[in-house]
Amino acid sequence: MQNQTNTPREVAIQITGLKKQYKLGQIGGGTLTADLQSWWSRVRGKEDPNVKIGTDTRLFGKTFMALNGVDLTVYKGEALGIIGRNGAGKSTMLKVLSRITAPTEGEIRLNGRVASMLEVGTGFNQEMTGRENIYMNGAILGMTKAEVDAKLDQIIEFSECGDFIDTPVKRYSSGMFVKLAFAVAAHLDSEIMVMDEVLAVGDMKFQQKCLGKMSDVAGQEGRTVLYVSHNMSTIRQLCTRCVVLDQGRVIFEGDVEQAIAVYMDTTDVNVVHYDLDDVGRMNVGAGQRFRLQSLDFVDKESSVSADTEKVRVRIQWFVTEPFAGIHMKMNLHFRDSSPVGITHPVNLGAAEPGRTYTTTFEFDPSLLGEGQYFFYLDIFDGDMRTAVCLDKPVTEFRFEVTSTDLTMPEWAAGWGRIHFPPVKLIEDSI
Fold it and tell me: Is a pLDDT exceeding 80 seen at residue 417?
């Protein structure tokens, strides 16, 4: 009988004891004079003359561990999903792997070149054409002109931007920009691809096209993919293994479905206030002309509501230019990221530049089955046919619906998430 030995898997990334510590508060004032003024004011117990209005000076000197002792092995040809709540350390880990920021402690060994797509169009020059940006990104990866030439036609075809490839990318629509940026990252020769929520943008057809390409990259081409997302359906489609981060630590590593179950157990429906100024945005250019600053569940100690009560939400927002009308809709999802539906758009009214506005709205959860949900807010200019995204934070605003109807039998998951009202009886005439 012949002995069989398992061939050891080739390691693409080895992370050991990774820590990343941030110092909270203002680090530098931009000039030596400003830094000295700030230091001397703090020594004397006086107000810092260089602090921006609204900054919490109590944070000075305090530290925050974004990553706190991460040990992880990623193998060649693997599509690894990284999930966790906002602030769990997902994006920080990708930034460290991409050498955008340095670790505080720990060791990272990379076996291959890394192509990063932490936000759409990372590394793109707005003044250069699409073609020029392709060559520039190839050069950053260490590729020769001849190597980029061999990939050029594939990139252009995939991006669907062939007619505009010699146009400066600053003139591209957000959809065109997304397509080209993804095409460049997916086709240039890098052994490791790092992506953070990039598939949350673009139309559904393009998203499916990207998922198919990523599956080919990891499965057939043998490249390694690290993918961060809050969308569990894309995690299921793309990833072969999954890691759950919580408070900078790995709390689970293994099967995708088990990881999703662990992740959902870590979600918190007791958050009633969200600061949105510093969170990421889903769309290119979002949050610049219009910016959501905060969201609150009004008069609530938790975001749990009975299906008989209206849920009131207050948002604070700021604009940098005049608008004749601003529209808003909610994108509703169940806790596992499966879509539930969207609300009809509502007009927030006109707005003047340089002003901060507060808007309170309410929605009715009575049609939803019992369970945990979240929504995204989508702010846009114009009607739905010509809508231009103004702002869409990546934050999931979570809430829970509890049922008060004792006449309903136990809810079956296979029925979906919509609780239909009773049918209306109509008497037949004789």
Answer: no
Domains of the chain, by residue range, sit at 66-266, 273-405
Instruction: Read off the pTM.
Output: 0.64
pLDDT above 60 for 372: yes
d(CA 133, CA 125): 7
Higher pLDDT, 24 or 189: 189
**Residue 143 CA to its chain's centroid (Å):** 29
Protein fold of 66-266: Rossmann fold (3.40.50)
| Ramachandran class of 106: left when φ > 0, alpha when ψ lies in -120 to 50, beta otherwise | left
Q: What's the confidence (pLDDT) of residue 15? A: 93
Q: What are phi and psi of 11, to 5 degrees?
A: -80, 130
**Beta-strand pair 311-319/356-363:** antiparallel
Asked if 216 and 186 count as a contact pair (C-beta separation under 8 A), the reply is no
Q: Which CATH superfamily is domain 273-405 in?
A: abc- transporter (atp binding component) like domain (2.70.50.60)
Average pLDDT of the residues in 183-203: 74
Instruction: Report CA-CA distances (Å) from 263 to 95, 124, 273.
Output: 22, 33, 21
